[in-house]
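Consider the following assembly input.
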Amino acid sequence: MYRYVLKRMAFVLITLFAVIALTFFLMNVIPGGTSELILKHTFIGLEESATEEQLAQISDRYNLNAPLYIQFIEWIKSGFLEGDLGTSFVYHKPVLHLLMLRLPATIILALSSMTIAVIGGVSLGIYAALRENKFADHLLRFLTLFGVSMPGFWIGLILILLFSVYLKLVPVAGYGSIENLILPALALSIHSLASIMRVTRTSMLETLGEDYIKFATAKGLPVNKIISRHALKNSMLPVVTVLGFQIGAMLGGSVVIEKVFAWPGIGSLLVDSIFARDLPVVQACIIVIVFLFLVVNFMVDLIYVYLDPRIKYR
Amino acid sequence: MKNRFLSILLIMSLLAVPVFMSGCISSNEQSVESGEQAVADPSAAGQTLVLGEMWDIENIDPASAGTVICEKAAVTETLVGANPDFSLKPVLATSWEQVDDLTWIFDLRKGVEFHDGSTMTAEDVKYSLERTMAENPRVESMLNIGSINVVDDHTLEIKTKEINPILAGILHYPDTSIISESSIDENDNFVKPVGTGPYSFESFNEQTRVLTVVRNEYWWGGDVGLEKLVLKGMPDPNTRAMAIENGELDFTVDVPYSETDRIDAIDGLSVEKYSTPRVYKIDTNLEDEALADVRVRQAISYAINREDIVEHVLYNVGTPAAGPFLPSMSWANKDLKPYEQDLEKADELLTQAGWTDTDGDGIRDKNGEPLELELLTYAARPGLPPMSEAIAAQLKEAGISVSSQVLEWGAISDKRENGDWDLVLAAFNIAMVPDPEYVLGNWYTTEGPDNTPGYSNPEVDALVEEAKTIKDLDLRYQKFNEVEAIVYEEQPKILVAYYGCAIVKKDSVKGYVFDPTAHDYSVNAGMYIEE
């Protein structure tokens, strides 16, 4: 087991490195000159024209003249070996400082949406499985189809319209209090909630068809005992798998949700930085997001062992 | 047994999430400055105005974020201002004169105090301008200053490297606004903007990016209406619309254009639509065989229905455009009228140019080649993608097949550099500097940096060169009017509509005056809230 953990750790590092190298490469091949876009986003406005001197000045200032592989090696050297993630081209602030400002908002949002998605998804999934092919089941399945298909920003706007503008229960947008958290967390969770519910329902139905459940029913155990003692744990394996994917979807979905709710998270920081070619910030955001994703998936693998002791890692 | 232990653990961890969350959030709340608490408490709101800004506020250094600090928060001021007709007016400089080709003398306003209580002198102005030039490559190349010399406390001599008749106009650009040296700490780091404007900086929350400014009791310009102004970045137009509908904002701009009439009809809210110094225009690639023919460009202009676009795409947030300048600008060529849609005229011109529909497929052709063009645009400005669709449909009626494509601006720049383009629809600023030379020189002279069509007309080049040496404004503007008339005929850039701005505010907000010379919009000292 320990060897397995070590192996996975090494794998995490290799993946991180590969992603960073890929990001660095991609950021330099996407259309639009790096220095040109930095200049436009920081100083002159998107549509304005840039003169050669201005571009040269920017390249000089941010050291963009060196060959790409040298820039990459230098970045790896300072980023990994010295722990200095650099300074943002656009904000003129240390990247670490920006991450520390934005990361809490993202983590709060992701954790609360995950909580809503798991609690809501699992319990509705079980409920739908128990009511198989009855009206409640059909209704829930229809609603989940809706939840999976509708884009997050649209759900966000509809939630604002309903809960803020019509019902006046919570503020439209902003950051800093629990009321501000409710709508974005809900909007971000709907997609995952729907996926989790569908998987739970299917998996639960499968488990309920097993012989040991029939046996438990036959010996007269009440339904809630059968579910909580016997069926739940055994049907959770696919659900946990989906959970691992959903963290990724959530980090992606938060990009739009953050814009709609003016939520100061890392997703909008990443997108803005890509448009402005703020390379140090892009790199750092990617590292954080990939790291979160890898850690969650690692944890998912460990949960498998608990859920199904037949799974052994070597 | 094991199961029970685990389920307890699970429940506890789930409970821990909200606890953890509230912990994080309450610690954030402490970092929120007093400004926001005042808003939260309605009885104390009084003269506090909450403004929903269209971009996230990332930066509060006027050297690079002048539009926010100088225009939207009114913390700093520039030497030179502009009247609604874009003629210049004194602000921190009371008068200025170009004494010879390269030398300018600026007389500074006396008795102006910075927010830190110190008096503004020529030294401070020199310091600010030099700092901005060092920070901001754009301003440096626009000003192109050789040296700044302090003559006395209130007189400044500026020497330019080349003759630059628009120097005073450039000093209206918000990034050139004047700050006190106390804005910067001993390590040369920018701390906060200490300016001379009607509002003084109070706080900027780096996490929520909320900027709070308060009334400057000692403003040289007189009384200031609001006690406090809170600026919140809300990048989503729909969110801004709902936030003002919900009463969370008192003032905002650019809700979705399609929503303006609905919001205007709501009790207690009003929407005002203005033209701003920016124009939607189509650049044509003169390297393209078809577009090189002036008749084809004119035909395209005649095929576009500008009235329809303004009404149905922009919902009247904007007006049809004739020349590059708003008719309200003092130097605009007022004889020019927007091209009216005239399909017969377009047909005539295209037929003359040899483009006719020989195979009856609805698309004109010449020597077997169909007249097919690609129209590129980008999504950063909401009016552009639907406008490009509308233009493509209108050109189709004239027998020109246009495919419209929405790309990222960087991709458009690349395509243009490679010559791989036909038409680009973009919204360009037309008064970065309140003077016609800036735009006409950049857009239409052979060497102009924004002359992407590759247009070259010796007559235009000569007129712009000649105007540089003329100090009399009327004579100078005459030359530029001639330039405007020439490019109106030749249409290397097809102007579609002037950009609009929709100001949305509560009816209780009084005294607002729209400043057409601001780069998005600006806040004025006379604004107040009626109880």
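The first strand of chain B starts at residue 48 and ends at 53. Ask yourself how this observation constrains the way the partners meet.
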